[in-house]
Amino acid sequence: MCGTCGCGSEKNGVVIQNPLEIKTHQHEHQNHEHHHSHEDEHTHEHTHDGHSHNHEHNHDGHSHSHEHTHDGHSHSHEHSPHKKKVLEIEQDILQQNDIMAARNKGYFEAKSIFALNLVSSPGSGKTALLERTLKDLKEDLSFYVIEGDQQTLNDANRIAAVGIPVIQINTGKGCHLESDMVYDAVKKLDISDNSILMIENVGNLVCPSMFNLGESKRVVIISTTEGEDKPLKYPDMFHTSDICIINKIDLMPYLQFDLAQLKENALKVNPHLQFFELSATTGDGMEAWYQWLKESRITLK
Amino acid sequence: MHELSVALGIVKIAEDETKKANATAVELIELEIGTLAGIELESLNFVWPAAVKDTVLENAIKKIITIKGKAKCIDCDTVFGITHFYDACPKCKSNFKGILKGKELRVKALEVV
Predict the structure, then answer these.
(1) Residue B80 to residue B70: CA distance in whole angstroms
(2) According to CATH, what is the number of the domain A113-300?
(3) A228-279 per-position pLDDT tens digit
């Protein structure tokens, strides 16, 4: 079962590649049979159909009123030849992702790598912010980048053009990065100690919030062209982030955008959020963000 | 649509646990999902048939136990029910709170045969 698009392929459609090693973009979807030809297989013997537990128990006279709300799990009804077993497992559904995230985190901590998970809706300027940051700081700090997008190497190419090691993860139809993808990408990057790893998540303000990648800090980016009620509309993302970057402040004179209101809304969802207001295009406000990056990396050690 | 990832996570757990118990199929699966867990039940129900196809969960009855959000105010210790992350303390209006309940996303139990 495909982890991304739900098709029946064993491969989950995620492609992880280095833009410098790829010249042509090949769509190799051979293993990806998107046509569920299950018509012939629908002869499943549904002998289990009766298991909706409607034991009526009209035992001629005595009226067993088994309520079967399943709350107590005391199923000792031996009415069928096969044995039923109740497994009380209490397992976190995202456990697999969390375990892998913990592995990533341990690796980052051991090597004093400051890892940032950059999340935002599409078009808020994640890649532009990244490009500018890398250009301005690459002489002072060592950077590595993981780019997450559904399709194309476009973003990775933009980063590679700045001269920074980058790996592109294409999630196919997936709407977010997961920790195992980052794990695989990190293995390819061979990150040196004391570096900063920027993980640009898929542009999506909903799904990535649930998936811990093992990052040191989560950075949510919102631009002034978006509504100031976004933190209220997409609370999960703002709730799980540490830093909120407000981008495109150079456009403020042309917009009806209430910066104070945005911050107020964001703080309602997450009172611990720290803000940076900047423009990745003009460079306004970038200094404070750079300062924070430098200090955070040092305090890691 | 992260619900598909979640559904596949459930399938993985069910497959592993069923195998461990030397069983072949799941008849009933109980999930605990908090109202603050970020799961749209409608979406989960939508992707469910595709996710469980040809797995031990294919014919399982899915029972969802919804857990309502509960928080404790950091400033005045009031415990209160919340439906959104941005709900303030009803007593002192503070936004600083710890989430006590509502973020659950768990497979509680499986009934296997």
Answers:
(1) 6
(2) 3.40.50.300
(3) 999 999 999 999 999 999 999 999 999 999 999 999 999 999 999 999 999 9
Q: How many other C-beta atoms are found inside a 10 Å radius of the C-beta of residue A99? A: 12
Alpha-carbon span B108 to B103, nearest angstrom: 14
Domain boundaries of chain A, sorted by first residue: 113-300
Main-chain phi, psi angles of B72, to 5 degrees: -125, 125
Q: How big is chain A, counted in residues? A: 301
| CB-based contact, A22 to chain B, within 8 Å | no
Contact with chain B for residue A239, Cβ under 8 A: yes
Q: Which of residues 24-43 of A touch B (CB under 8 A)?
A: 38
The neighbour count for residue A279, using CB atoms within 10 Å, is: 22
Sequence ranges of the domains in chain B: 3-112
Q: What does the pLDDT look like over B99-109, one tens digit per residue?
A: 999 999 999 99
Tokens 């004391």 belong to which residue? Answer: A194
- Which residues of chain B are within 8 Å of residue A209 when distances are taken between CB atoms? 38
A263 at B interface, C-beta within 8 A? no
The distance of A2 to chain B (nearest Cα, Å) reads 9
Question: Residue B102 has which token pair?
Answer: 């509502």
Q: Does A48 touch chain B (CB under 8 A)?
A: yes
